Amino acid sequence: ELGPYSHFMQKEIHEQPKALSDTIEAVLDAGFSAELFGPNAAALLPTLEGVKILACGTSYYAGLTAKYWIESIAGVPCDVEIASEYRYRDAWANPKHLIVTISQSGETLDTMEALKYAKSLGHTAALSICNVRESAIPRASELVFYTRAGAEIGVASTKAFTTQLVALFALAVTLGKVRGRVSDEQQAQFLDELRHLPGSVQHALNLEPQIKAWADKFAAKNDALFLGRGLHYPIALEGALKLKEISYIHAEAYPAGELKHGPLALVDSNMPVVVIAPNDSLLEKVKSNMQEVRARGGELFVFADLDSHFSESEGVHVIRTPRHVGVLSPVVHAIPVQLLAYHAALARGTDVDKPRNLAKSVTVE
Ligand code: M6R
């Protein structure tokens, strides 16, 4: 089953161009039409006043990315909450806010219970973004989008994450379309960007040898810091989670602007700092945050796309990701952080596919 790969995680990382193409195919066929999310969606989506996303772990980080898209492309307020927190608080509910759950397995207990709780508070419509057909969460939801990642076996979620991002991006554009905010021309442009996405992801996968060389250095460290801003902050979070989960290296992620509000105190020459720094509108801000790290002796490992114009210098290592792909850039930048975690774990000899203390599907509290 593993073919040329050593682990399911590695296989699943490399399956991403195909998983993405398969998922994108559904979007290309329907062209951002409400039916993508099920027969009830056409009546429902135009009446919405907001979106509330509930999920756990990596799926939660997909939700955090979606917030940027949903607010900027669709102009709809969006909040994202960890399912295990939401289910136990006295939450305020607006029935006109669509509940969106994100779950690879469709069986995560906390997400399922959060969905039931939302319903009990008066939310009438829920959309499930899920990778497993007919699992519990989509069965309990009015609207469904199935990602087409194929079975994900490694405990660390990889291809499920990037296909969730595509589903959420499609939701943002579709919401924008039904609200008259996204023109035909913009839709055509977004479809084109989706069409090119698997190619850019393949490009990122081809960076594996360079990333492995970095990972070998990380393997000797006890801690790591991940920084990103805007759309790439959730990718920093995802990179830190992947590294913790499978290599057991302590890792934290921050939006780079937060450094001076606390975490900068941790930075010294023993602290590798990974920066997700593509050429977006926040790049200059990220560059000045990087100087703050360098000034404290921190070693920087920067993922910068071809348009970011970074050069290597002492203590600053750069890997060039593909050409900037606009708002879909988080999908491309998920790849290098997955590969970094995978190779750091390999170098440390941990059980990559079955990390200690963790289960693939968390069906208990
Ligand atoms: O199946 P789900 O997407 O609901 O799972 C949620 C989390 O348990 C999951 O993403 C977890 O964080 C992964 N092991 C991360 O790699």
Indicate the topology.
Elements: H1 8-14, H2 16-30, H3 41-44, E1 50-55, H4 57-74, E2 78-82, H5 83-86, E3 97-103, H6 109-120, E4 126-130, H7 136-139, E5 143-146, H8 159-178, H9 184-205, H10 208-218, E6 223-228, H11 233-247, E7 250-255, E8 272-276, H12 283-295, E9 299-305, E10 316-321, H13 329-348
Parallel strand pairs: 1-2, 1-3, 3-4, 4-5, 6-7, 6-8, 8-9, 9-10
Helix pairs in contact: 2-8, 2-9, 4-8, 4-11, 9-13, 10-13, 11-13
Bound molecules: 5-amino-5-deoxy-1-O-phosphono-D-mannitol (M6R).
Structure write-up:
- The chain has 365 residues and is an alpha/beta fold.
- 45% of the residues lie in helices and 16% in strands.
- It has 13 helices and ten strands.
- The strands form two sheets. Strands 2-1-3-4-5 form a five-stranded parallel β-sheet, sandwiched between helices. It has a five-stranded parallel β-sheet with strand order 7-6-8-9-10, with helices on both faces.
- α10 crosses α13.
- The longest helix is centred in the middle third of the chain and has 22 residues.
- It is globular, with a radius of gyration of 20 Å.
- It starts with 7 loop residues before the first helix and ends in a 17-residue tail after the last helix.
- The model has no long low-confidence stretch (mean pLDDT 96).
- It binds 5-amino-5-deoxy-1-O-phosphono-D-mannitol.
- The site of 5-amino-5-deoxy-1-O-phosphono-D-mannitol has 16 residues, from α4 and α11.
- Its EC number is 2.6.1.16.
- GO terms for molecular function: carbohydrate derivative binding; glutamine-fructose-6-phosphate transaminase (isomerizing) activity.
- It is an enzyme of class 2 (transferase).
- Homodimer.
- This is Glutamine--fructose-6-phosphate aminotransferase [isomerizing].
